[in-house]
Every structure is written in structure tokens, then in C-alpha cells.
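Structural prep section.
Before we set up the soaks we want a predicted structure of the protein with beta-D-galactopyranose in place, mainly to decide which crystallisation condition to try first. Input record follows.
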Amino acid sequence: MKTLVGFLLLTAMTFAQKTEVYSLKNKTGMEAKVTNYGGVLMSLTAPDKQGKFADVLLGFDKPEEFATVDNPYFGALVGRYGNRIGKAQFTLDGKVYKLAANNNGNSLHGGPKGFSKVYWTGKQLTPNSVEMKYTSKDMEEGYPGELAVTVVYTLTDSNELKIDYTAKTTKTTVVNLTNHAYFNLGGPGSTDILGHMLKINADKFTPVDKGLIPTGELKPVKGTPFDFTTSTAVGARIDAKDEQIALGGGYDHNFVLNKGASPAVEVYEPKSGRLMTVTTTEPGVQFYTGNFLNGTITGKGGKKIGKRAALCLETQHFPDSPNKPSFPTTTLKPGETYRTTTVYKFSAK
Ligand code: GAL
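Run finished without errors. Recording the C-alpha cells verbatim:
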């Protein structure tokens, strides 16, 4: 028994990895912090209309707090497949791959560990950029192929946070990487995002079933609470009598970005004057209004994080694409390079 405990302790110590925090700064005064645990973007400051900088991300003060079980992916790098895969399985080249069902019988965000509960290898590239690398083993979380992933966070002097994702596989697999930052442009004093003005350059969205799996339909947003083609307050229709709103408990849906849409999304917070635009090479964005947050998590500054305290704009391929041949493909083959870029740009007016 003693030897077993000793062996386990030694193993744990050998494999215990160090939590590191990398700081990024640009020339205008923006700052970001990234930890190698989950590749998490811990904080990001942006100026308001008076030029005052504040952290616009929800999460925790200390990197190790991101390892708590009820962390809803604050700022995390999500993979190998961000968002949901229905019935936690998919077929690739005629072979069925079974994943762990970690969300009402479905797979969410790459599985119980995914890429957000593992240590990445960090490397500061320049004072304003950091690289995160992670190699996911063949069949890790049920996915075929060893996947070598590199994500670079860069804070540009044009007040942009740029995230570049690349990946290569040894066997045909599926990949859908994103970042799960929770934004509140009002800064730490702001309690919810209902007054944020949102514009999404999307004429269609992917309606879901009760497990939040897309039905496969691309539904026009026109005449629905999902029409954000003109800037509208997030809270204006969030509790509308609408089947899709009811299923999501608010917004928790993938929007089909119009081709060439640039920016894809604009968010404006009237009190602070902060404006964030999102541009991406991805075909979709999951707009999630923090409907599952319920005040049980104590976040930065010891503050409880309440329902709809923040919003997420997870740029991505559509949920459940491996089971939806009509959706843009998420298949990656050996010899190919997965490459996507998303830019969050900040200004104030
Ligand atoms: C979002 C997802 C939500 C919820 C959240 C984590 O990406 O769309 O349904 O699972 O992550 O709490």
C-alpha cells in the first residue's frame, strides 16, 4: 500500500505541470494575460471613451482557479471539437467514433478534458504575442489521429486581439477550434450584457433541438429574435416567446455568417462607449448569453457571476458538422493544415 501511494505521488509530481502566466502589452496600453492551463485568455483590458482601461473578460484572478470543476470554459481554448456533437458520436471514412457524452447524451467542447483542461506549452514570442502548443494523442477523447495544435495570441498596436489557430493531423479527423472568452464591455462594474448593442452579419442561423444540436436547417433570421442584422440591444428579445429562445434559455445559437462579412460581429456598450468588432475566417459564430451562469461561481475580485453577466462570440464551424454533411466540413486530413484566424478589435466612441 505504502509503495503504491509513494508511486502514485511520484507519478503525480513527475507529471504535475507548472501553471504559467504570460503577459502581453501593446503600444497603446492594452494588456492581456494568458495561462498555459487550457490556453486560457485570462484578462484583456480595453479603453473606454475617456481612455480608461478596464478588463472586459469574466473569469478568475488566479490561473489555478480555472481548473475548478464548474468553470464554464472562461477564456479557454476549446477543442478538438468546439461546441456539440450529437449523440457523442460520428462516422468518418465508414468508421464510427464514440466520444464521452458529457452534455445530455451529447459531446460538448471536445469531451470531459478536451483542450481546455490540459496544460499547453507556452512560449512568449514577443512582448505582444504568445504561442500555445498542444499535441493531442491519437484517440485522445475518442478522436482519431495525433493532432498538433498551435495557437498564437497577438495584441496588435491597432488594439486588436488576434488569435491564429493551426493544426496538423496524422490520421483523418475532425477539428473545430475556438476561444471561449466571456465578454462584458462595461468592465468589472457591469453586472449584465442586456444593454450591449449587437450586430451580427448573418441572415441565417442554425436552429437547434432540445439538446442544442442543430436540426440541419439554415433558418432565416428575418422576423425572429435572431435578427441582429441591424444593431439591437441583446436584452430586447432575449425572453421573447419563441421556440428557439426557449430551447436556448436565451441566445445559445450558431449564426451562419454572410459570405465576406467583415466585420462579422459588432458589439457596443453605450455606457463605457466600448466597441468590439469581430472578424474571422470561420463560417459561423456561437452567440451565447451566459444563460447557464447562475451566481454560484465567484469570479474576479470576489464577485459572484450572475446569469447573463457576459456574452460569448465563439467563432467556429457549425455544431455537429461531423454528422451534418450539408454543413461546411470540419474534416482534416494528413498533409493538410487547419488554419483559422479571429480578430477582436477594440475602440470607443
Ligand atoms: C457554450 C455553449 C453553451 C454552454 C457553455 C458552457 O459554448 O454554447 O450551451 O454549454 O458553452 O457553459
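Observations: Confidence is low (pLDDT under 50) at residues 10-15.
Flagged for discussion at group meeting.
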